[in-house]
Amino acid sequence: MDPAAIQGQHMVSWNNLIEFEPKKFSLEKPLKVKEGQYSSKTADMIKYNKAANVADNITDSEYSITEDQVKKSVSKYSLSEKDGIGVVYVVESLSKTAEKMTAWVTFIDLNTKKILHTEKVEGKAGGFGFRNYWAGAVYKINQNIESKYYKVWSKPYKS
Fold first, then answer.
1. Tell me: the pLDDT tens digits for 33-61?
2. Is the pTM above the cut of 0.85?
3. Number of domains observed in the structure of the chain
4. Domain residues for 31?
């Protein structure tokens, strides 16, 4: 596992999936967003991830983060968008042994950077090659949102 390649190549590639492969990775369908109410912009997250310390975060041990750690991370974001609601996946872990990604799917008020909701969601990894293997987990997380989480998450907002 090459930390420099993960940080310089793969993290950028994973972030760009929703823009470059929208049919497969867009959140428009899983979140049932109407046409014209959704746009994807990953530049801020790519810039933020360039400061990540990948080498120090590679471990064979179990790893998890807390909701407070997610909030602390999000508070550091420098976001160019100031209107609407943003969604970000704060990745907790990529577990090769469990063959899954765990991420905190986090909804942010872009104006205040206040977290509106965050929840830990898992996705089974799968695909050929390092990039696609973990991209498969992002795809599965999106499917899990659509089939399981969206209904629960949207319930308080339905009239």
1. 987 888 888 888 888 877 777 656 667 77
2. yes
3. 1
4. 3-157
